Amino acid sequence: MPPPKDVVKIAIQMVGAIPQLIELQQTKPLASVLKDVCDAWSLPNAERYALQYADGRQTYITELNRGEIKNGSILRLTTSPDQEAERLYSGIQSNNSDVKTDSLKKLASLSQDVTFAQEFINRNGLKQIFYIVEEGSDTGEMLAHTLKAFMELMEHDFVSWEILSAAFIKKIVNYVNINAVDVSVQQLSLSILENMVPTSRLLFELVKKEVTLDRLLTHLQASNAKLQLKAMALLIALLLAATDAEQRDMMEYLREKNIRQFIHKNIIHSSEPPGDEMAHYLYVLQSISLNLCERRMRTPMDPYSQEQRELLQSLRQTAFESESEAPASNVSTERRRSLCAKEFRKLGFMNNSNPAEDLRRAPPGLLALDNMVYFSRHTPNAYSRFVLENSSREDKHECPFARSSIQLTLILCEILHVGEPCSETAQAFYPMFFGQDHFFEELFCICIQLVNKTWKEMRATQEDFDKVLQVVREQITRTLSLKPTSLELFKTRVNALNYSEILKLRQTERLHQEETLAVPVLELRERLKPELLELIRQQRLLHLCEGTLFRKISSRRRQDKLWYCRLSPNHKVLHYGDVEEGMHSPPIESLPEKIPVADMKMLLVGKECPHMKEKSSGKQNKDILELAFSIVYDVEEYCLNFIAPSRYEVSLWMDGLNVLLGKEMTSERMQRDLDVLLSMDLKLRLLDLENINIPDTPPPVPKPPSNLNFCYDFRHAEQ
């Protein structure tokens, strides 16, 4: 007979004693359970003890989390959190340096537990930590343990970062700014400052003033990858917390210091490729830099602005310089206006009498004008060739430079997500972005020449304008997906991807996607489905058995804590637990937490998940919602919450978990996989029928013959 749901069978250990095997009644007060355990070992003062998980993070058991205890859990009898907090509070004040260091080391470890952290903070423990930092002169191991303990205590959000004293902040800043300290201390100091920056404007201004960009650049050039990562994290935090004007100034200063070239050489092309966290910071830096174009992109041209009119006129003068050399005194105003209108028409403006009207659409606004001017000034030969070549063609075949530039600028803004907020998890940066100062403008210069090249390849007319730009968008997108490392490589690849290659790729993809719609083939398709669905189910379960590394994202979006989850080979238990950075496939025995598949009730996705309900509904959380899912398990309906590293992982896990729950797989990825497998299987089975038309209906069965005299009589043959 199975045990009641409110009873779990567990083991309790104690150093120097034989373990106890007990049936824990969840309805019985924890104090009574502790008293029974202590009595069994003849221990007085049961209130001084507590239960703690023996494996994993060794969390203290409380009335709030006792429901998470599972059958087969191994607990340990240990000193209660309040007693331990009191002991360590005294230990960190000891005059004996060994005792003090050991106490701080233990404090850094135990502070991860929320119950202990609350007890220690209630004893004014943070004040003592502040004192050690403010008054101490140690810059080695003791200080590292102190800062680690401080970070862990602050992670629980019991107190605000704004309580930090000026003296404490000054010390932390000093550890970042001087070289004569341990690297681990500098890493922790950078992390503390990174956490301070988003919490208040005052702290942001203080950190920005005290930790200069030059100092952060020095840390970025360090050979220590972890120190490099923490410096980048603080730099990104400062940029995200800055106003638009401050952000612009900071980015301009970083540009002057050649930060892009340094990143391109020493981080992107270092011996070790950037990790997930560094890739995210590079993506954010790229996004912030590209978003500096947003102001010009959203500003329409002002026809009354002298500066903007001069920029517009410079386009005409650069292209038709020799034609405009006639003395102004010899040409009437009307004649000059007519000449200008003709030249603006040759430039490809739709409204040649008032070309400013073409630039009043925002986006792309003034950004399109900036790109055209940059192209005309930095590649004047290519610019003149583009304009003059098209002005000499027949009217219907000329490629309009201005109209193409305006539309191309809009396309580049959409592809590069200019003006969109940074994603909180994305890692998709372009390596070539960091190899060029004026990336957007230089990319435009390559792509506008691509427009002219594609226009000629397609023998396009004005009616084909949208079609040509659609092909150009595809050429750019396909080439960017290859992640070229430099603009030169991008230029080579995008020019190699000519119109005929695009047509071939489209045809290949269409052939892959097309399915024969003949009724017999559709019937064969339906017969093949169950077998292929079973194949996909097995693949999904195999992926769950291999497991996935997930990141924890706290209220401040820190992503440096990792945990791993995998399915047991017999498909009966989900194992999970915290892991260290760099561990990609931990053995199943090292994952202490378990959820029996039989206890799983349902799956929640996106906004339905408990860990997503408190998030704001802004654009920045949309990508998080798409990656979130939860498993509801046990009678009490506990939840195990996930934030997947990618949409691909979400699909695999949702399908695999649905299989375990006995439900249908519903992800788009499953449908894509099924379509690919069906397509391949059908093509293999129909190879012998190539170029044969398959009728929608089977051919009619012929009528029986009028006589059967043609039948062969075996009996006569045998005689």
Automatic annotation (TrEMBL):
<keyword id="KW-0729">SH3-binding</keyword>
<keyword id="KW-0053">Apoptosis</keyword>
<dbReference type="InterPro" id="IPR006816">
    <property type="entry name" value="ELMO_dom"/>
</dbReference>
<protein>
    <submittedName>
        <fullName>ELMO3 protein</fullName>
    </submittedName>
</protein>
<dbReference type="InterPro" id="IPR016024">
    <property type="entry name" value="ARM-type_fold"/>
</dbReference>
<comment type="function">
    <text>Involved in cytoskeletal rearrangements required for phagocytosis of apoptotic cells and cell motility. Acts in association with DOCK1 and CRK. Was initially proposed to be required in complex with DOCK1 to activate Rac Rho small GTPases. May enhance the guanine nucleotide exchange factor (GEF) activity of DOCK1.</text>
</comment>
<dbReference type="InterPro" id="IPR011989">
    <property type="entry name" value="ARM-like"/>
</dbReference>
<dbReference type="GO" id="GO:0006909">
    <property type="term" value="P:phagocytosis"/>
</dbReference>
<dbReference type="GO" id="GO:0048870">
    <property type="term" value="P:cell motility"/>
</dbReference>
<dbReference type="Pfam" id="PF11841">
    <property type="entry name" value="ELMO_ARM"/>
</dbReference>
<dbReference type="InterPro" id="IPR001849">
    <property type="entry name" value="PH_domain"/>
</dbReference>
<dbReference type="GO" id="GO:0007015">
    <property type="term" value="P:actin filament organization"/>
</dbReference>
<dbReference type="Pfam" id="PF04727">
    <property type="entry name" value="ELMO_CED12"/>
</dbReference>
<keyword id="KW-0581">Phagocytosis</keyword>
<feature type="domain" description="ELMO">
    <location>
        <begin position="307"/>
        <end position="480"/>
    </location>
</feature>
<dbReference type="InterPro" id="IPR050868">
    <property type="entry name" value="ELMO_domain-containing"/>
</dbReference>
<dbReference type="InterPro" id="IPR024574">
    <property type="entry name" value="ELMO_ARM"/>
</dbReference>
<dbReference type="Pfam" id="PF16457">
    <property type="entry name" value="PH_12"/>
</dbReference>
<feature type="domain" description="PH">
    <location>
        <begin position="542"/>
        <end position="662"/>
    </location>
</feature>
<dbReference type="GO" id="GO:0017124">
    <property type="term" value="F:SH3 domain binding"/>
</dbReference>
<dbReference type="InterPro" id="IPR011993">
    <property type="entry name" value="PH-like_dom_sf"/>
</dbReference>
<dbReference type="GO" id="GO:0006915">
    <property type="term" value="P:apoptotic process"/>
</dbReference>
